[in-house]
Amino acid sequence: MSGQTVWQFSDDRGQLSSAERRPTRVLAYVQAGATLWDHGIRPVGIFGSGHDDPAVPDAAKTGSLPLTEVTYVGAGTTLDVETLLSGEPDLVVAVSYGGGQVYGLAPETAKHLEEHVPVVVIDVGQARPLAETGDRFTRLARSLGAEEPAAAAQELDAARDRLRTFAAGPDRTRALALSPAGQQQAHLARPRMWPELRVLAELGVDLVEPAEGPGANWSTVDWAAAAALRPAVVLADIRVNATPLEELRTNAAWAAIERTARVVPWNPEPVCSARAHARFLALVADALGA
């Protein structure tokens, strides 16, 4: 095999994947698949995590993916090697939150999957800056012969500048990131633990820092305590494992928040492309400038 005909990529486990030709049939975890789509790669299939519906992908995570054209193979316990290989992928792109553990797949399933097809794992964990995660996907996409359009980087630069301008205004606008957890409580995000929220802080957004206590990523409080923080902007988790905001209409504390705060949809598992990140920053800037 000549060097020109061999595809190789070293993933975030330090594991080198290789093939005799460049892969063209990619199966990906939904977050990775949506990110690769923004780079010009159409996955043949996507899969979810144990938090997701086995029959329908979580629309909050799918970004711009054309879901009528990309097969969803399932999530959680429905995923076995046979199911994952049903679309004949020649590459699987998964994510990890550290330690090399493949997110969304049982360890034994991931192990046996690699006996049949190369598996590339990108670390999307909290220790890594969002830009670095994006760079890893960019490198992978380039190895597969694709790249996000240059216009996307320009959109991101413009969105960052606009958000920075609004955040630097004379009236500091407090923003609170949370995940609704039923009628009784909410999980308040600790901003330093979420790469996308750290970007907002770097751009000058005044993010509410929950009180110290149990929970490395979230501080769980009742809705009255959340309302007492009086945020002007709320970044609300819209994944399927979070309580839909429509179900909170009869909750007095949430209604109080909603009366005075601008609500921005937030996906804690963001699509790691420049274009998707620019869209999110634009939404936050709109809320700050409203």
Features:
single chain, 290 residues, alpha/beta, Rossmann fold, 13 strands, 20% strand, signal, ABC transporter substrate-binding protein, transport, Bact_iron-sidero_bind
Please provide a written account of the structure.
A hairpin with a 3-residue loop joins strand 8 and strand 9. Strands 8, 9, 10, 11, 12 and 13 form a six-stranded mixed beta sheet that branches. The protein is 31% helix and 20% strand. The longest helix is centred in the middle third of the chain and has 18 residues. The chain is built from nine helices and 13 strands. The relative contact order is 0.14. The mean pLDDT is 94. The chain folds into two domains: 141 residues, Rossmann fold (3-Layer(aba) Sandwich); 140 residues, Rossmann fold, CATH 3.40.50. The radius of gyration is 20 Å and the shape is globular. The protein has 290 residues and is α/β, with parallel strands linked by helices. Helix 5 runs parallel beside helix 9. It is found in: Cell envelope. Belongs to the bacterial solute-binding protein 8 family.
